[in-house]
């Protein structure tokens, strides 16, 4: 399990900055995202993959840039990995954990990893089986409904961890999970798959 040491209220907050979709692989946009959460108690998480059309991969050199820039701001950074190459790359950094998304075809990436892992699951059956894994309840609809989370997961697991794809902050405030992950963007944008109604913006941070 991930040690819940960085908290807002009772939760570790993970803000998902996405891949190259939102930042356009431009340093100025990376800086803008990081600057917008400076001083906020969170962990920054990017998405790393070599290819996932039509999504734009975040270049490895720009992840390095983002990692170093955030570190200078006193913020910790990690990533979701979607292939062995990205996992190997991420393991060259000192990260609070490694994230694996809600996809059964990616769970094999967790094999042999002794460092802390955060893994999103579609249902509770596989949760809690390994000590080094913090499980997140996840519904991969964008946006998802609170009722769907509550139908798939008991409240005992919703209070442990949520990868939150609902609109707004109601699911978070209802369960106050130990670990909470949410997509984060500067502004909503219907052309960016990471920047639709399931994501939050800087204006929402005060409500967490």
Rg, Cα atoms, Å: 16 Å
How are the strands of the biggest sheet laid out side by side? 3-2-1-8-7-6-5-4
Overall number of domains: 1
Average pLDDT level: 93
Determine the CATH topology: TIM Barrel
Q: What is the percentage of strand-forming residues?
A: 15-25%
Please render the helix and strand layout as text:
Blueprint: E1 12-18, H1 20-23, H2 27-36, E2 43-48, H3 60-72, E3 76-81, H4 84-90, E4 98-100, E5 117-121, E6 133-138, H5 146-152, H6 155-158, E7 161-164, H7 170-175, E8 179-183
Parallel strand pairs: 1-2, 1-8, 2-3, 4-5, 5-6, 6-7, 7-8
Helix pairs in contact: 2-3
Describe the protein.
It is built from seven helices and eight strands. By secondary structure, it is of the alpha/beta class. It has one domain: Aldolase class I (TIM Barrel). It has an eight-stranded parallel β-sheet with strand order 3-2-1-8-7-6-5-4. The relative contact order is 0.17.
The gist of it:
The protein has 7 helices and 8 strands. The protein has 208 residues and is of the alpha/beta class. The chain has an 8-stranded parallel sheet with strand order 3-2-1-8-7-6-5-4.
